[in-house]
Amino acid sequence: MPRNNNIPSVIKAVGLTSFFINTSTLIIFSFFAIYLKDVLHMNLSKLGFLDGAVEAISYLMKVFSGYLSDLICNRKILFLAGSVLLLIAKPLEAVCTKFVPLFCAKAMERLGNGLQSTPRDAIVCDWTNKDNKNICFGFRQSMASLGSLVGALLAAFLYYRLRDFQKVFWCSCIPATMAVITVAFFVKNKNRDNTKIEINKANNNKQNKIKLKDIKNLSNEYWTLLSVAGIYNLAKITDSMSLIYVTYVWKLNLYIVPLFFAVFHVGASVAAYSSGIIAGKVKRIETIFISGVSIFIIADILFIFCAHSIIITIMAMFCLGMYSGIANSTFPAQISGLVPDNLRGTGLGIYNLACALSLLCGGTLLGFIAEKSQIVTSFYVSACIASITLIFLTIYRHVKYKN
User: Domain count of the chain?
Assistant: First the structure.
């Protein structure tokens, strides 16, 4: 069979939806941490827990949505429902001024993100083959990162003109609405009009109940990648913490702050698409994972020394973005290929559960360290944990290919 690197129109629509969702999210997220710290006076320990908690909520919802998408054989309806929930959360984030209701609004947003995320990745996988899978996942992640870049630039412009957090947050409703429209009219399920969908539903009703024997039958390679994902998410300092650190090191004007997120997402967009292309050509996919973790460690080291030069700070944000682009595109693509077709959503769901627990623990731990010591100390700890991941991956690759 000839290689087919063409990207199907459905996946282009999924990528466009990711673009709009991330644009909407970044308009708020670019200022969210500073808003919580400077306006609501939240300390770093609570901020680290909040970041970890809302991301954990998102990943836990991915567990449910993945299983449900397998069960009902209708991934689009969950993708659409999650996008609608994201849209509803935007005006709530704009009007809430107290911590508790703002936390609830943010949790609703992450619930929507988790609800749409796994069915979205499963749709991408459904419409790809073994030759173009990595490039399609890379394209979707690249579009998501591009949306984040545009959202960060818009946030900077809007705050410069409006000088009001709430007014800026209200503007996020526009791209969120465009995301819902794109899913509703341009995304479709694989073979949605084919009678095979009814057969798949019948089979899934019998087979897709999560049983212990199903989990045990997943491959050793799947569990290895799951372990790696758990460790590297434990090491991840939240984007909010990184941005607060950069903001106060350089005493930045608020409308300049989103530009650092723009640098982050330039790196993420470039890395996501290029890693998708490279992954389709290399035999040893672990090499890409090792490269991603190495870049993450470099980012930590650059953050430690970022007070010495603005160039070092920009390089740190760019490297952190590159790591995010590699991890968020290559890992889901590889995980989805290691599980049976009828358990694809469930396999991705278990992966997301591991990420949720790891992010919650990592965010809480590193936030506590930053509060009790200094933020820079958390970068030292992060680099050490990431180094363990690197050693683990190197040993795994050596054992796997020694014969």
Answer: 1
